[in-house]
TrEMBL record:
Listed cofactors: Mg(2+)
Family to which the UniProt record says this protein belongs: Belongs to the phosphohexose mutase family.
The name this protein goes by in its record: Phosphoglucomutase
Organism: Chishuiella changwenlii
Residue intervals of the Alpha-D-phosphohexomutase alpha/beta/alpha domain: 44-180, 204-307, 317-438
Length: 570
């Protein structure tokens, strides 16, 4: 008997409800492939929570896997704070079952004596981060699978500073979760311990976003914006934030302003994908808009498109968007005389190295952590009272302005990028030209690209693991015709200079990531996704630039170089 079948038969006991038992029996009788994928392992409660396909099974997101995770979290909270009233804020997105899962999670918490602040309906993930701090909660939970396909859902855990959990705390919570048995889960909640929250928190959140994401009123009535929530949660907040910030020409894509867990108008509700903004770009061309902004379903990621010098709307990649945002923030801080060298911006290991150049330009620090905003939030926590965090971002279309929210935040980012576009338009320029001007100021233009290779299921996970082993045992000697001179292995924590043979320890938590650097300054990172069945290759190249008129030629050369790198990895 296979281990999957053995695990499945355990779910036929009276500890599981009849609907679950019937579904499991159906898999046993009729669908051995699905049975194997549903039960061959436990859906991992990782360092930030878990994400997976919804359905019955140990490797699926359902009542029992969510119940075990929440019971473990409740045990940890009650052990950590034994002599005080405990509270947790819960938000959820527009996905199928998110509202049901949120109530289930609330019931488990209240059954363990923990007060719950539950949003009345779907809300953005950054609002959950804000709410944890605003209400002084001990933790927060959001039910979301971000931009994953409709069959997915997820569960992310935040601590009392509004940031996702990180080591060593995450390990302690994971240990509690792993020790939970099915009969330990308390599903019978106490509704008297649930407070429904909504407009009051919304208003406070919007006020904070406008305060942190606005520096001037210049041009805000003249800039024409197309905004789309891509059927997600930002539809309830971002339009109100635009209005409060003074933008008067904001046009929503009407078909995508309808919340839906099916995301019916897109292949993927991910603003990183150009296709997701097709309808928004079409509307922008129809009405002559200056900028396009789109957010993912839980409204932490944001995609930005703007007109280039030929008048065509082009999508900025995450590094380009964040370059403009970080530079503008630092300009404003410098103009206000607030920079004294004890400030920093945050970035990640797979994000463009341009952020080092930007920090050096303004005489501040750039701190770099693993992929994920919880690591940028952890920097804020570690340096609180010593250095001031100004802003930070990662290549996957996420940015955070200040520390009032401790996660990537599309709402404040949308306001800030729109302000930059408005200021540039008032000067007779554009957001696109602002990016080029920054490259010239730094003396170096950058270009990035990304390949995602999807390998679903058990076989896919095994293949991705083998690919990373192969990269370590048979590393490339050159990439796009340029010699590889340095390799960073974040799993072994070794940074090796291939010219001298010198090895340096990497002072960042271990992660299954490899980064190769070439003689001509190119950078390629290889990383299995932590939330999806895919392996990612990140490419970054750069070249000298001295004036804005050189950009078209330099940009074309950089595009060709990224294509050569991609060929090596395809």
């Amino acid at each position: 008997m296979s281990s999957s079948l053995e695990n499945a038969k355990l779910w036929l006991s009276d500890s599981y409800d009849i609907e679950t038992r019937n579904a499991v029996q159906d898999l046993i009788d009729n669908n051995p492939t699905e049975l194997d994928d549903s039960f061959y392992k436990n859906l991992e409660f990782g360092t930030g929570g878990m994400r997976g396909i919804m359905g019955v099974g140990t490797n699926r997101l359902n009542k029992y896997t969510l119940g075990a995770a929440t019971q473990g979290l409740a045990n940890y909270i009650n052990t950590t704070y034994p002599n005080k009233e405990k509270s947790v804020a819960i938000a959820y997105d527009v996905r199928h079952n998110s509202d049901t899962f949120a109530k289930l999670v609330a019931d488990v918490l209240t059954a363990n004596g923990i007060k719950v602040y539950l949003f009345e309906s779907f809300r953005p993930t950054p609002e959950l981060s804000f709410t944890v701090r605003h209400l002084g909660c001990d933790a927060g939970i959001v039910l979301t699978a971000s931009h994953n396909p409709p069959v997915y859902n997820g569960y992310k855990v935040y601590w009392n500073d509004g940031a996702q959990i990180v080591p060593p705390q995450d390990g302690a919570i994971i240990n509690e979760v792993n020790n939970v048995k099915i009969d330990d889960i308390k599903f019978s909640g106490n509704d008297e311990l649930i407070s429904i929250i909504g407009k009051e928190i919304d208003d406070a959140f919007i006020d904070a976003c406008v305060t942190n994401g606005s520096f001037t009123k210049e041009g805000k009535e003249e800039i024409k914006i197309v905004f789309t929530s891509i059927h997600g949660t930002s539809v309830v907040i971002t339009p109100k934030a635009f209005e409060k910030a003074g933008f008067t020409q904001v046009h929503q894509v009407p078909e995508q302003a309808i919340p839906s867990g099916d995301f019916p108008t897109v292949k993927s509700p991910n603003p990183e994908e150009p296709e997701a903004l097709t309808m928004a770009v079409a509307l922008a061309n129809e009405i002559g808009a200056d900028v396009v902004i789109g957010t993912d379903p839980d409204a932490d990621r944001v995609g930005v498109a703007t007109r280039n010098n030929e008048g065509e709307i082009v999508l900025l990649n995450g590094n380009q968007m964040n370059t403009v945002l970080a530079y503008y923030l630092l300009e404003k801080w410098q103009e206000a005389g607030k920079l004294n060298g004890k400030e920093f911006i945050g970035s990640t290991i797979v994000t463009s190295d341009i952020f080092y150049d930007i920090a050096a330009k303004f005489g501040i620090n750039c701190k770099v952590g693993l992929t994920g905003f919880k690591w940028i939030a952890d920097m804020i926590r570690q340096f609180e009272g010593k250095e001031t965090f100004i802003g930070g971002g990662e290549e996957s279309f996420g940015f955070m302005v200040g520390d009032f929210i401790r996660d990537k935040d599309s709402v404040t980012t949308a306001l800030l990028v729109s302000e930059i576009a408005a200021v540039q338009k008032a000067k007779g320029s554009s957001l696109y030209n602002k990016l080029i001007e920054i490259y010239v100021e730094l003396g170096k233009a950058y270009q990035e690209d990304l390949i995602n290779i999807v390998k679903p299921g058990k076989e896919g996970a095994e293949l991705i693991a083998k690919m990373m082993v192969d990269f370590r045992t048979n590393s490339p000697k050159e990439l796009a015709g340029s010699k590889v001179i340095r390799v960073k292995d974040f799993q072994s924590s070794i940074d090796k200079n291939l010219i001298t043979g010198e090895e340096t320890a990497i002072d960042i938590p271990k992660s299954n990531v490899l980064i190769f650097y070439t003689e001509d300054g190119s950078k390629v990172a290889c990383r299995p996704s932590g939330t999806e069945p895919k392996i990612k290759y990140y490419f970054s190249v750069n070249a000298e630039i001295n004036n804005v008129n050189e950009y078209s030629e330099v940009h074309e050369k950089l595009i060709k170089k990224t294509e050569l790198l991609k060929q090596d990895f395809n």
